[in-house]
Amino acid sequence: MDKLLKLDFNERSDQNNPLTRDLSFGDSLWQYPIREPLEKMIAEKNGFLPNQVLCTNGGDEAIMILMRIINEGTKLILPLPAFSQYTWGINSWNLDALLVQANDNLSIDIDGIRQAIKSNNQSVTVLTRPNNPTGESIAFDDLVELVKTSRDNNGWVFLDEAYIEFSEEPSTAERLLNQFDNLVILKTFSKAYGLAGIRLGYLLGSKLLIEKFKTRCMPYNLSAPSIQIAKQALDKNNQFEMKSYCEQIKKNRKEMFDWFTSSGINVFPSQANFLFIKLPANQAKAVKSYLTKNSIAIRSFDEDGLTNCLRITIPFNMDFLLPRLKQCLRPLLICLDMDGVLIDTSGSYDQCVLATVKQLSGKAISLESVESLRRQGSFNNDWVLSKRLLEDLGFNFDLDEVTQVFQLIYLGKNNDGLVINEKSMISSKLVCQIKQSNDTQFAVVTGRPRKEACSGQALVDLSELELISLDDVKQGKPSPEGIQKLQQKYSNSSWMCGDNPDDMQAAVSSNSLAIGIGENKIESLYQAGADIVLKNINELEKWLCPIK
After folding, report:
1. Where residue 547 falls among pLDDT bands split at 50, 70, 90?
2. Which among 160, 338, 354, 474 could disulfide-bond with 128, CB atoms 3.0 to 4.6 Å apart, if both were Cys?
3. Both 298 and 210 in a single domain?
4. Do 228 and 250 share a domain, yes or no?
5. What pLDDT, on a 0 to 100 scale, did the predictor assign at position 548?
6. pLDDT digits 0-9 by tens, 160-175
């Protein structure tokens, strides 16, 4: 897929509104635009008077005006988590704000909002329904109570309904605006209508509150083309298209939500056109990186309480997104490098390289010079690595001669060489998880010859795993051949875990999720294409926890 699938801003990304295909504005561009006819149409559609409607330059202008109003001496009450435009506005305008922290599960703290309103007379409370970024919908009874509490304390409520068309619960406009005069409701053409580019939002509310916004609004704040397109969006045919689109998004949302739930992934119930998930440490970064490589943009967060969370806009067509999400989160194949991932070779292979160079050249080299060469890539084979180090010292030995010396140091005469220093790096808990996994095939892809891979301490704990060794491929890593052999047998839905750049390059070439291992190799692994770098393989324990 060459075109980017943008699932990070909650726009329509893959099903454009038909209105965008053929636009003609006649001779209307010579004069300043008049928004009042559009406001009248919106008022009639919602059963209100024109003076209860204000059209704005996107919902953002309405929010900006809200900040101006609050800046004039009013206290803002904002429940978290919240749309970034509100939190940005608080910091930008240096507002007097009370942030109501979310519950432990990131749901809105209704009781906390109620108490905040009661404790702050004449305050403005911002509520978003469905909420962004979680998609949570405030229950109607709770909403009524909060608006009433605000009224009783001489305050008013700014209700953001940007995503209401995707909700199973209808808009509150007709039910509440005829009952309360301390409520303003924000709506937009950006989301359900798929017209974010025309930058058009609108407010519904009492005449008095709408007038507060109108007096602070820019003159001629909307363009003539935007007004004309919005009018067309309100006609019968496009209303049918919009509602049909929303129904498909609701259906897709349920499909994705059900898959997340059945897979043991922490997904939040949503009434919006997106889903919000929280993942174990580092996994969100890996998922976002992999999807980006596959031309899918999603939203990640770094705010307090939202780390390792992702927001994914629901596309109209799920065929491209869902398989790649499944690969990121529940792969069918996980390939594991051996050295530096499953086996600690610092006392064996690393020392063999040093000893081989010393024996053949008579010169001692540092371990850093070995690691420096490995970080460059294309030196996954320690025989080739040793030969190159010797060449750098001015010695030109045949690879066979280097290999013979290396192997004698490594294996000894009776497997009593440095091979005896090898230790397992994988925890018993992770070994147990791997052995008990029914849905995911685990395999080892190593640059070792098969005899060495199967000897000594190398595969004692995981001897039952399928093994692709250097003897089983025409080309070792960074070639993806070994991974691809396993993909052909099991699935393309794969991960590759390795500790050097060659492993990462092989992962990228096979379109596997690339997991680097080793905190002292972070930069080189990311440069080679790692989606995430973990300290050790055992950090995967939490990622694999739901696998049965």
Report:
1. very low
2. 160
3. no
4. no
5. 39
6. 999 999 999 988 888 8
298/308 same-domain check: yes
In a domain, 1, yes or no: no
CA separation, residue 16 to residues 50, 198, 231, 242, 311 (Å): 30, 13, 17, 10, 21
Single out the residue of 106, 92, 34, 99 nearest to residue 63, CA to CA: 92
The last residue of a domain, from among 300, 329, 358: 329
Whole-angstrom Cα distance, residue 190 to residue 13?
Answer: 12
524 in any annotated domain: yes
Specify the residue for token string 């990462």.
Answer: 504
Which residues, other chains included, contact 315 with Cβ-Cβ below 8 Å and sequence gap of 6+? 5, 7, 13, 14, 15, 252, 321
The residue-averaged pLDDT of 99-126 equals 97
CATH of the domain at 64: 3.40.640.10
Residue 328 pLDDT greater than 50, yes or no: yes
> Is 512 inside any structural domain?
yes
User: How far apart are the C-alpha atoms of 213 and 202, rounded to whole Å?
Assistant: 11
Give per-residue pLDDT as tens, 333-386.
999 999 999 999 888 888 888 989 889 998 889 888 888 888 887 787 888 888
Query: Do 397 and 257 have their domain in common?
Result: no
Q: Do both 415 and 430 map to the same domain?
A: no
The pTM for the full model equals 0.88
Q: Is pLDDT at 244 greater than 50 in this prediction?
A: yes
For residue 1, pLDDT over 60 is answered with: no
Q: Which two tokens mark 72?
A: 């004039």
**Is the predicted pLDDT of residue 325 greater than 60, yes or no?**
yes
Q: Return the ∠ at Cα 163 (arms to 314 and 196), rounded to 5°.
A: 80
Work out the burial of residue 45: count CB atoms within 10 Å of its CB; fewer than 13 is exposed, 13-18 middle, 19 or more buried. Answer: exposed
CA distance 465 to 169: 50
Q: Is residue 363 part of a domain?
A: yes
Tokens coding 395: 């010695």
Determine the 3-state secondary structure of 532 from DSSP: strand
Distance of alpha carbon 513 from alpha carbon 336, whole angstroms: 12
pLDDT of 118 strictly over 60: yes
**Structural contact between residues 58 and 49, judged by C-beta atoms closer than 8 angstroms:** no
Kind and range of the H or E element at 514? strand 513-517
Residue that terminates a domain, selected from 421, 443, 460: 421
Q: Are residues 65 and 127 in the same domain?
A: yes
Specify the length of the chain in residues. 548
- Counting the structural domains of the chain, the total is 4
Instruction: Write out the residue range of the structural domain in which residue 433 sits.
Output: 333-337+425-543
Enter the tokens of residue 376.
């460059």
C-alpha 235/C-alpha 73 separation (Å) is 41
Please give the pLDDT value at position 278.
96
| CATH assignment at residue 533 | 3.40.50.1000
Binning pLDDT at 50, 70 and 90, where does residue 121 land? very high
* One domain for residues 215 and 324: no
Considering the domain architecture, whether residues 221 and 360 belong to the same structural domain is answered as: no
CB 507 within 8 A of CB 334: no
DSSP helix, strand, coil percent of the chain (3-state; round to 5): 45, 15, 40
